[in-house]
UniProtKB/TrEMBL annotation:
Residues the record marks as active site: E320 (proton donor/acceptor)
InterPro entries per UniProt: Class_I_gatase-like, Peptidase_M14
Listed PROSITE patterns: PEPTIDASE_M14 (PS52035)
Biological source species: Saccharopolyspora antimicrobica
Cofactor(s) this protein cannot do without: Zn(2+)
Keyword Cytoplasm: no
Signal peptide limits: 1-35
Domain Peptidase M14: 65-349
GO molecular function terms noted in the UniProt entry: metallocarboxypeptidase activity; zinc ion binding
Name this protein carries in UniProt: Zinc carboxypeptidase
Gene Ontology BP annotations: proteolysis
Pfam families reported for this sequence: Peptidase_M14 (PF00246)
Family: Belongs to the peptidase M14 family.
Cellular-component GO terms for this entry: extracellular space
C-alpha cells in the first residue's frame, strides 16, 4: 500500500515574483469538524423499504453488472417518483441525442419546486465578493452546500456510473446517521454518466471522437456545455469525477505535481487535507490498496478536476479504479471513495460555505493587488525550474477594432461570461502606461473605445488568469497534456495586460451568444479521409468532422479503398487529418496512390494536417521536406508569421499561434511557405508554454501551399484545429478550403522522395540527460517495451511505442513516466500522448 506522506502547502504565501519556491510545511491542523465524524461512515445500512432498490426496478443489484444508460435513467426516474427527497432532470443532450440525466437528492424543503433554483441563486450571491457581509452570513447559515458526483466521462470507464447510482440510492433510502449527516448540510447532485454515447458504444470518447476530459474550458461538445451550465446554476463546493485506468491500485488525491499556479488555496486545502485523508482512512480500514501523488496532476484546464478547482473554487477530484477488475470490486471501491468524501464534506458543516465565500473574496483581493499566485510543489520533492515571473496583472484587454476577428472575440467573451467572469467594454479610449501585448515587450498604448476590459479584481480572478494568461508557467518539465491554452492566443485575438492602477470608463458587455459561421457560397465538394494511427488519428478526424459541421460545410467520408476505386472524382477538396502516413501509404496500395496523385494533378486540392502532410512527400506532391524534431515541445503555442499575399491569410492578420506538439520540422521554398516561424532575433518570436530547444524552429515552415500539376497541396505541419479550440489557425484551414487559389503558386516537385521513417502517433516521449539514460533504458526494458532512442551529446530521447493508445488507456505508461520523473533535474521533458 502507498504511504501517505502529505507535504502541505498551507495558506499561500501570496509571494509575487517568488523565486523557486518549495513549500513544505507541516500538516495543517485538520479542521475540527472533520476530525471525528460523530457518525461512522460505514455503519451497517438501515434503509426505508419504500425507496425502490435497483433490483426492484431493474432486476439487478448495483455492482452486480454494469447498467446501461437507459437503465441508469430509468432508475433515476424511479427514485424521483418514489421519494420527495429526489428530483431529476436533463442537463444536456449528447451528440447522438441521448439525454444526460441527473438527480439531486436533499431535504424535501431544499429540492421541492423552486427551492433548488433559489439555492443556486443564493450560492451565486455568496460567491460574489461584492455581496454585503451580513447577507453573505445569512446565506452561509441558511443554505446547503452543493456536492457533485459524476462518473463515466470516458465512456468505457463504467463503474463511476453504477457507484453514483448506489450513492444516490443510499442517500435517499438510509435512515441511519450517515445520509442524514451529509444531507443536514448539503444537497448532492448525481450525474451518473457524462458520456452516454460513449457508454453505449463502449468507447472512451463521445460520438464525435472528443476526449471530454480535455474539453472543459473550450466546452466545444454539447455534453460539456450542458454540464457547465448546470454547474453554474448549482455551483459546486465539491466535484468528484470518477474514472477507470490501467494501474492495479486505486487512485484518489492528493494529486501529482504540477498544480496550476493560480488555483485558490482553499479548495486545494480541502482536497489535500480533508478529502484525501478521509479516503485514506476508509481505504486503510478496508485494506484496499491505493496510491496518491502520482500520475494525475492538476495542470491542464480541460479536466474535470482542474476546472471545478479553478473556475468554481470547488474541490475538484479525479478518482481512478483499475478497469480490469471485476464489476463488484470496481463499483465497490468507487462507492467507498465517494461515500467517505461526502461524509467528510458533511462534517464540515457551515465552515464549508464560509471558506468557499472566503476564497472568492481573497481572489478579488489578489486581483486588485495584481498578484499572481506563485508556483508551488504540493507533493513532490524537487525543484521549481520555472517560477511565475515577478509581474503585476490587474487588467486584461481584448481588442475589438479588427472586424475580421469579431467572431473570435465574441466566442472568447462568451466563454468568459459563461464562467461568470465580469467583462466590460471601454466607452472612451484608455491610456495604458504599461500595456503589454501578448508575447511583446511592455509599451505605452491608447486602447480605443470598444476594447473589452476584464479586471482581475473579481471573484473569478483565478479563472481569468487561467483563461487569459500569456503563459501557463509550468513549474517543472513533466507533462501529462499540452502546456498552453490561452484564449486570446488560440483565437488569435490582439490583446494584452496591465499592472497599473487604471480607472477605465466602461459598461458591462451584454451577454454574448455563440458566433454562428457564415455559410460558404459555392462550397467545395469536400471529402475527409480518416487515416489509421490509433487514438491520435481518431481524435484529429473527430475534431475535423465537428468543426466542418460547426462551419456548416458539407462533406463525405472516404476510405483508402474508395480512393483506390476512383471515389475522388466529383470532389474538389480532400482533407486528411492527422494519422500515420506510413499506414496510409500502405492502405492506398499502388492503385490508390496513383488515383490520389492523378486527382491532385488533375485539379484537386489536397489538404493534410500534421503527420498526414508527410504523405504528400511520399507521393511526390510537394517540394517541402521534413525532419524529426530535436526540440522538446509537448504542446505549446508558438507564434508564426503569415504571408499577407497568401489567400490563406484572409482575416487572419500577420501572425497566428500554432499548437506545436513534437511535430516534424518542415522546410519549404520561401514562395511555398505561407506561414513560418520567425527567424532568430525577430520580435515576433514567442512561445507560450514549455519548450526546450525551440530554436530549431527559427525560420522553418509551418504551412505549405503549392501547385501540383493543375491541382494544389496545402500542408499543415501542426493540427490547425487542435481539439477544435484553436480557432485562430482553423481559419487558415477554412481559407484553404474555401478561398481562392494563390496566383502564380510555385509548382511542387514531381519525383517521389526517399522519406524518413514515419512517426507513430501515440508515443510516450522521455527526454533525459545522458547521466540517467541507462537507468531509463533499463526501466523500459523491464516492461518489455520497445523504444526508438535518439542519442545526442546533451540529450537522450526515448520514444516508447504505446501501440496507438493514449496514456490513460495504456496499462503502464503513466507509471513509467512517474518513475522517470523521479530522476529530477536530469529529466528535460516527459510527454504522454
Ligand atoms: Zn478516464
Amino acid at each position: 500500500m502507498a504511504m501517505f506522506t502529505f507535504r502541505g502547502s498551507g495558506r499561500s504565501k501570496w509571494a509575487t515574483g517568488a523565486a523557486a519556491l518549495v513549500v513544505s510545511l507541516p500538516l495543517l491542523a485538520v479542521p475540527q469538524a472533520a476530525a471525528a465524524p460523530s457518525c461512522d461512515p460505514f455503519t451497517p445500512p438501515v434503509v426505508d423499504d419504500s425507496v425502490p432498490t435497483a433490483r426492484e426496478v431493474l432486476g439487478t443489484d448495483l455492482g452486480e453488472r454494469e447498467v446501461t444508460t437507459e437503465e441508469s435513467d430509468t432508475y433515476l426516474r424511479a427514485l424521483a417518483d418514489a421519494s420527495p427527497n429526489v428530483v431529476d432532470g436533463e442537463l444536456a443532450t449528447s451528440v447522438q441525442g441521448r439525454p444526460l440525466r441527473y438527480a439531486v437528492v436533499g431535504q424535501e424543503k431544499w429540492v421541492r419546486p423552486g427551492a433548488l433554483e433559489n439555492i443556486g441563486r443564493q450560492l451565486n450571491r455568496l460567491r460574489d465578493p461584492n455581496t454585503p457581509e451580513p447577507v453573505a452570513q445569512r446565506i452561509i447559515r441558511d443554505t446547503p452546500a452543493v456536492l457533485w458526483v459524476a462518473g463515466n466521462v470516458h465512456g468505457d470507464e463504467e463503474s463511476g456510473t453504477d457507484a453514483a447510482l448506489r450513492v444516490l440510492y443510499e442517500l435517499t433510502a438510509r435512515t441511519d446517521c450517515t445520509a442524514q449527516s451529509i444531507l443536514d448540510n448539503a444537497v448532492v447532485v448525481v450525474l451518473p454518466t457524462q458520456n452516454p454515447d460513449g457508454r453505449e458504444a463502449d468507447t472512451r470518447r463521445n460520438a464525435y471522437g472528443f476526449d471530454m476530459n480535455r474539453d472543459w474550458f473550450a466546452r466545444t461538445q454539447p455534453e460539456t456545455e450542458g454540464k457547465l451550465e448546470k454547474l453554474r446554476e448549482l455551483p459546486p463546493q465539491m466535484f468528484i469525477d470518477a474514472h477507470e485506468m490501467g494501474s492495479p491500485d486505486y487512485f484518489f488525491p492528493p494529486n501529482a505535481d504540477p498544480v496550476y499556479h493560480d488555483i485558490g488555496e482553499t479548495p486545494l486545502n480541502w482536497v489535500y487535507n480533508v478529502y484525501g485523508p478521509a479516503m485514506q482512512q476508509a481505504f486503510g480500514r478496508f485494506g484496499i490498496p491505493y496510491f496518491n501523488g502520482e500520475s494525475y496532476d492538476l495542470m491542464y484546464l480541460g479536466y474535470g478536476d482542474t476546472v471545478p478547482l479553478t473556475g468554481f473554487n470547488a474541490a475538484g477530484m479525479t478518482f481512478e479504479k483499475n478497469s480490469g477488475d471485476p464489476v463488484p470490486e470496481r463499483v465497490g471501491e468507487q462507492y467507498t471513495a465517494i461515500w467517505a468524501t461526502l461524509m467528510a464534506a458533511g462534517a464540515q458543516d457551515r465552515q464549508l460555505l464560509a471558506e468557499w465565500r472566503g476564497e472568492h473574496v481573497e481572489a478579488q483581493r489578489q486581483g486588485a493587488a495584481g498578484e499572481l499566485e506563485p508556483n508551488q510543489l504540493y507533493w513532490n520533492d524537487g525543484e521549481i525550474t520555472n517560477p511565475v515571473p515577478d509581474i503585476a496583472v490587474k487588467h486584461y484587454f481584448l481588442r475589438t477594432d479588427d472586424p475580421a476577428k469579431s467572431a473570435e472575440v465574441q466566442r472568447l467573451a462568451r466563454r468568459l461570461q459563461r464562467m461568470d467572469v465580469d467583462v466590460y467594454r471601454l466607452t472612451t479610449p484608455l491610456e495604458v502606461p504599461d500595456y503589454t501585448e501578448y508575447g511583446r515587450a511592455e509599451q505605452p498604448a491608447t486602447l480605443p473605445a470598444g476594447t473589452l476590459w476584464i479586471p482581475m479584481a473579481q471573484g473569478q480572478k483565478h479563472w481569468v488568469q487561467a483563461m487569459l494568461n500569456e503563459n501557463s508557467y509550468v513549474p517543472f518539465p513533466y507533462f501529462y497534456d499540452v502546456t498552453a491554452w490561452s484564449g486570446p492566443l488560440v483565437e488569435n485575438i490582439s490583446g494584452g495586460r496591465s499592472g497599473a492602477d487604471l480607472r477605465p470608463r466602461a459598461m458591462p458587455l451584454p451577454e454574448q451568444p455563440e458566433p454562428v459561421a457564415r455559410p460558404v457560397v459555392d462550397a467545395p465538394r469536400t471529402a475527409v479521409w480518416q487515416l489509421p494511427g490509433g487514438s491520435a488519428a481518431t481524435e484529429s478526424a473527430g475534431w475535423l468532422r465537428w468543426w466542418l459541421d460547426d462551419q456548416r460545410m458539407d462533406f463525405g467520408d472516404l476510405t483508402a479503398e474508395q480512393i483506390a476505386a476512383g471515389a475522388l472524382a466529383g470532389h474538389d477538396v480532400l482533407v486528411v487529418p492527422n494519422g500515420s502516413d506510413q499506414e496510409a501509404f500502405d492502405a492506398l496500395g499502388e492503385q490508390g496512390r496513383a488515383a490520389l496523385t492523378e486527382w491532385v494533378r488533375g485539379g484537386g486540392t489536397l489538404i493534410a494536417l500534421r503527420d498526414a502532410s508527410r504523405l504528400a512527400v511520399r507521393l511526390g506532391l510537394t517540394s517541402a521536406t521534413y525532419a524529426e524534431p530535436t526540440s522538446d515541445i509537448p504542446g505549446a503555442l508558438i507564434r508564426m508569421q503569415v504571408d499577407q499575399d497568401s489567400p490563406l491569410a484572409e482575416g487572419v492578420g500577420p501572425t497566428a499561434w500554432a499548437m506545436y506538439e513534437y511535430e516534424a520540422v518542415w522546410s519549404a521554398p520561401e514562395e511555398s511557405s505561407v506561414a513560418a516561424f520567425p527567424a532568430e532575433g525577430d520580435p515576433d518570436w514567442y512561445v507560450s508554454g514549455f519548450a526546450e530547444g525551440a530554436e530549431q524552429l527559427h525560420g522553418k515552415t509551418a504551412v505549405v501551399d503549392e501547385a501540383a500539376g493543375s491541382g494544389r497541396v496545402v500542408l499543415f505541419g501542426f493540427d490547425p484545429n487542435y481539439r477544435a479550440f484553436t480557432n485562430g489557425t482553423a481559419k487558415l484551414l477554412r481559407n484553404a478550403m474555401t478561398g481562392p487559389r494563390p496566383a502564380n503558386a510555385p509548382q511542387a516537385a514531381a519525383a517521389v522522395r526517399a522519406v524518413p521513417t514515419a512517426a507513430t502517433p501515440g508515443r510516450l516521449i522521455l527526454s533525459v540527460r545522458p547521466a540517467v539514460a541507462d537507468q531509463v533504458q533499463r526501466l523500459i526494458g523491464e516492461r518489455g517495451a520497445s523504444a526508438e532512442v535518439v542519442r545526442g551529446p546533451e540529450l537522450v530521447r526515448f520514444k516508447v511505442d504505446l501501440g496507438g493508445l493514449s496514456a490513460d488507456e495504456h496499462p503502464w505508461a503513466r507509471r513509467l513516466a512517474d518513475q522517470v520523473a523521479g530522476f529530477g533535474r536530469d529529466v528535460v521533458a516527459i510527454s504522454l500522448p
